[in-house]
Write a structure and sequence with these properties.
Layout: E1 2-9, H1 10-16, H2 22-36, E2 42-45, E3 65-68, H3 73-80, E4 90-96, E5 112-117, E6 123-127, E7 133-134, H4 139-149, E8 157-159, E9 180-182, H5 183-192, H6 196-204, H7 209-223, E10 242-243, H8 245-255, H9 259-266, E11 269-273, E12 279-283, H10 287-291, E13 295-304, E14 308-317, E15 320-329, H11 332-348, H12 350-355
Parallel strand pairs: 2-3
Antiparallel strand pairs: 1-2, 1-4, 5-6, 5-15, 7-10, 8-9, 11-12, 13-14, 14-15
């Protein structure tokens, strides 16, 4: 059976950095630096396809080429840059490998992960799923449920104030102080674009104020059986907001029951007129939504330094409703690659699909 490898020179990779985002470039430079410690002038990587584990045994390759497999961090970055590398710098050649019907379990870059059948709660995959970790803006799903549970007037106008400025992390926001929005619009940009000031303003306007809101968040978590979860703020900027992948599955299932959370978390566009008179356009923070390749019913991403890159997704895969939780991935690209790896693994594992 024939496959292909693309050999890419280190110099051409470095040149391709001019065509990618700063975040991708930083990630790739770090990874290339580690590989260059071995004085390699080229790396070989396998684009797109996933091959059986034992094919390396049958690969005839030059000694000065490093072969990267589908779980290698540098490979994952290179795959995302495939279109950025000039064809003139690529040499394509063929290799053979023994066909193997075994479907290997994906090895993810995320520190913790879980995949669960949303209909019967069967766990299809897990990695450190009981480890308690910071969850960053995944917290906003709980905040959204608490807001909606109070049955508020969604058309009520709320105002962004100085109290909504992030003084813990110093993160920026396009919602300037004095911006007036309906609670519904705040929920929209809070879930779609992870707008911290919008979520904080809704929590501040909760009956009993912020103290009552946080108490409601923790009570809701306890009621859902999230025994290893705690919340200290509504946005997720506080690294003490922590949970496990197992607990987050419970939260995602509960959030799925709220039509507005499903709608707003998967929305792709929005606009807000700020107090400065500027129209700010918002888009979804999740690349999987923006590309449109998935059938996603609910999602949330999150990031702070302590939490790494996190994601929860409720999606239909092969007409099966699955919940995927990824925690503490090293980069946005690796987080997306982990999600795509899990989907590919599920879709290619016919026995697994039959048992679901």
């Amino acid at each position: 059976m024939l496959g292909r490898i693309i050999k890419v020179s280190i110099s051409s990779i470095l040149l391709s950095l001019l065509l990618v985002t700063t975040a991708q470039a930083d990630d790739l430079m770090d990874l290339i630096a580690k590989h260059q410690q071995n004085n390699l002038q080229q790396v070989a990587y396998i684009p797109q396809e996933t091959y059986p584990d034992n094919f390396k045994q049958n690969l005839e390759e030059a000694d000065d080429i490093e072969v990267l497999f589908q779980d290698d961090p540098l490979l994952l970055m290179l795959q995302s840059l495939d279109s950025a590398v000039s064809d003139e710098d690529i040499e394509v050649f063929k290799f053979t490998y023994q066909n193997n019907s075994k479907i290997s379990t994906p090895r993810l870059s995320s520190l913790a992960a879980i995949v669960v059948d949303a209909e019967n709660n069967n766990v299809l995959y897990q990695k450190n799923s009981d480890r308690t970790l910071p969850i960053a803006s995944i917290s906003k799903l709980m905040s959204a449920m608490v807001v909606l549970d109070s049955n508020p007037d969604m058309n009520q106008i709320l105002t962004i104030s100085n109290d909504d400025i992030d003084r813990l992390k110093g993160s920026s926001s396009r919602l300037s102080v004095g911006t007036k929005m309906t609670r519904q619009d705040m929920l929209h940009v809070g879930l779609m674009s992870s707008e911290n000031r919008a979520i904080h303003a809704m929590a501040r306007a909760y009956p009993g104020g912020m103290t009552a809101f946080l108490a409601a968040m923790n009570k809701k978590a306890a009621d859902l059986g999230m025994t290893n979860t705690v919340f200290y703020d509504p946005t997720g900027l506080d690294p003490r907001n922590q949970s496990t992948a197992q607990d987050l599955v419970r939260m995602v299932k509960a959030a799925y029951e709220y039509p507005l959370i499903r709608e707003y978390s998967t929305s792709n566009d929005g606009a807000v007129k700020t107090s400065k008179g500027k129209i700010e356009k918002y888009h979804n923070s999740n690349r999987l939504i923006r590309t449109g390749d998935w059938d996603i019913k609910l999602q949330k991403t999150g990031y702070i330094r302590e939490a790494g890159r996190c994601m929860v997704v409720y999606a239909n895969i092969k007409n099966k409703p699955l919940i995927i939780v990824l925690m503490n991935a090293p980069s946005t690209t690796m987080r997306v690659n982990d999600a795509n790896s899990m989907r590919s693994w599920v879709m290619s594992n016919e026995k697994l699909l039959q048992e679901m």
